[in-house]
Design a protein that fits this description.
The protein is α+β, with helices and mostly antiparallel strands. The protein has three domains: about 5-210, no CATH class; about 300-325 and about 345-425, Thrombin, subunit H; about 430-500. It contains 14 helices and 16 strands. The protein has helices spanning about 15-25, 30-40, 50-75, 85-110, 115-140, 145-160, 180-195, 200-215, 260-265, 275-285, 290-295, 310-330, 335-340, 350-355, and strands spanning about 220, 230, 240, 255, 295-305, 370-375, 380-385, 395-400, 405-415, 420-425, 430-435, 445-450, 460, 470-475, 480-490, 490-500. Strands 5-6-7-10-9-8 form a six-stranded antiparallel β-barrel. A six-stranded antiparallel beta sheet has the order 11-12-13-16-15-14, with helices on one face. A hairpin with a 5-residue loop joins β14 (about 470-475) and β15. α2 runs antiparallel to α3 (about 50-75), α2 runs parallel beside α4 and α9 (about 260-265) runs antiparallel to α10. The radius of gyration is 26 Å and the shape is globular. The protein starts with 12 loop residues before the first helix and ends with a strand.
């Protein structure tokens, strides 16, 4: 149990001011380490919450200042993932914001605060969650599932206490653009919906500024509407995701970003984003409606989609096995007739299940989904339709068409149109290879590597907890180190990787 005797100051403004003053004589990294230790203690403090709250508020300016300074130092390094010192600095910058936000959350969870104090604690906690999300994105780490779950808890408490829309002000300069708890929640949701990890660091900063200034264009609530393209499941989904056609869990927060997406598309808002990035963000916030609307009349093209990371991995591994058998057969050093008699051949069940990537759709496994591809104007996305698709938005699939190579795709959006579901698919570009992971906790864990032969290879992994600088050892292959998380969905994560020589 932590008590104030273990803290380097008494729970008074005067004592805290003296301790903060002592930190000013230390190098920034040393001061940040000491502050981080204190904040971590305060996340589990068991004293009177009303006495802790003003301490946390007074620690907020220093925390933001040190975190921003450390962020700038770490970002000056070329490849953080291979620089141990820079990696530690980056993680410390994130931890400062994380621990302070959790400390504010802890004061609320004690149920000791009055209504006004709860409003203040929730407001500060969610503000710091937002800045932690920004810092996490700048270092291309996976967003914290814990902070999103705590955000859901705080949202529910604020809703119960009728504090969501109640005006609040703060002396903290960074917090002045939002004047209610709901406004902060909208800012955090909007930043997440912009998928910041997909962009360079400059654009990440600009996307946070966009969310900071224009969060009021986002519409959120517990009542569903046809305009709600995203939802936030307060109970389990850690972060907002695109809405599906299925019934959503009770208590979900529905999110409509159409107003903002249209304003960005029409250039009605002043932003620092370049036109290309602004168009991409607008397209996503609009639910890719422009692409769905661009479908042209013409004969549909039959296709087949094998859905899900596990199924795709199994199929790719089966193809690789079959390819190796064929290669061994063709490389026999004996005469043709002897080679024909002695060569390795696939078993009958392997012939019927696994086919080369350029095989026709007729031979593809039956447990996928039959669909029809529709013609559209986009060069980046494919549009398909199916009466009863079994795919999840954000998951991967293997798309097969007759007489064409199968393509690895990511399901980006689904929308109901009359009696069918329209599905937006984004092909993954580059050569695809499947590997077992050495010493994996799950013996069946696989890694899908894209563009291993290029200067910028990527890896797809089943959703889990991964960090920049972490290593993935491929069985009978290279060891890859994780450089940047560029995508994170409930089903998979996608990292840029380097080869550990």
């Amino acid at each position: 149990m932590t008590d104030n005797a273990s803290l380097p100051f008494e729970l008074s403004t005067q004592s805290l001011a003296g301790w903060i003053s002592s930190l000013s004589a230390l190098p920034a990294a040393n001061a940040a380490n000491l502050l981080n230790q204190v904040l971590k203690q305060l996340t589990r403090y068991h004293g009177t919450a009303a006495n802790v709250l003003p301490i946390l508020i007074n620690l907020t300016p220093l925390t933001l200042h040190l975190s921003n300074g450390l962020t700038n130092v770490a970002r000056a390094e070329a490849d953080i993932a291979t620089n141990t010192k820079a990696l530690k600095i980056a993680k410390l910058a994130i931890q400062l914001l994380r621990h302070l936000s959790l400390a504010f959350c802890h004061t609320v969870e004690t149920k000791q605060l009055d209504t006004l104090q709860n409003q203040q604690a929730i407001f500060y906690a969610l503000q710091l969650v937002g800045y932690c999300l920004r810092s996490t994105a700048l270092f291309y780490e996976m967003p914290s599932a814990t902070l999103w779950k705590k955000s859901g808890l705080l949202y529910s408490i604020a809703e119960e206490l009728q504090l969501l829309k109640k005006p609040i002000s703060s002396k903290q300069q960074e917090f002045k653009l939002q004047n209610s708890i709901e406004a902060v929640v909208k800012r955090n949701l909007l930043f997440a919906l912009c998928a910041p990890n997909r962009y360079p660091s400059l654009e990440i900063t600009q996307l946070f500024q966009l969310a900071n200034r224009h969060q009021d264009r986002l519409v959120i609530g517990k009542s569903p509407s046809s305009d709600s393209g995203f939802f936030w499941n307060l109970g389990s989904e850690p972060n907002p995701v695109p809405r599906t056609n299925a019934n959503l869990p009770r208590g979900s927060v529905y999110i409509s970003s159409l107003s903002l997406g249209q304003a960005l598309q029409l250039g009605e808002l002043e932003t620092e984003l370049n036109s290309n990035v602004q168009s991409k963000v607008a397209l996503q916030l609009n639910g890719y409606s422009n692409i769905f609307a661009s479908v042209v009349i013409g004969p549909p093209m039959p296709a087949h989609l094998l859905e899900g990371f596990v199924a795709v991995s199994a199929h790719l591994q089966g193809e690789e096995k079959l390819s190796k058998i064929m290669n061994l057969s063709s490389q026999s050093s004996r005469g043709r007739s002897l080679a024909r008699d002695m060569s390795l051949v696939p078993l009958e069940h392997e012939k019927s299940f696994y086919k080369p990537l350029n095989a026709s759709i007729v031979s593809f496994p039956e447990h996928g989904t039959s669909l029809s591809l529709l013609r559209n104007v986009s060069k980046q996305f494919l549009v398909a339709e199916s009466p009863t698709p079994n795919c999840s938005t954000g998951d991967i699939g293997l798309l097969c068409r007759e007489q064409q190579a199968a393509r690895l795709v990511i399901v980006r959006q689904q929308t109901r149109h009359e009696d069918v579901t329209l599905i937006l698919l984004e092909p993954v570009l580059g050569n695809v290879a499947i590997f077992d992971i050495e010493n994996a906790s799950n013996s069946g864990q696989k890694a899908i590597v894209i563009g291993m032969e290029t200067d910028h290879p990527e890896i797809l992994l089943a959703n889990g907890k991964y960090v920049v600088g972490g290593k993935i050892s491929l069985l009978y292959g290279n060891t890859l180190y994780l450089k940047a998380c560029v995508e994170n969905t409930p089903w998979l994560v996608r990292f840029r990787v380097g080869v550990d020589l």
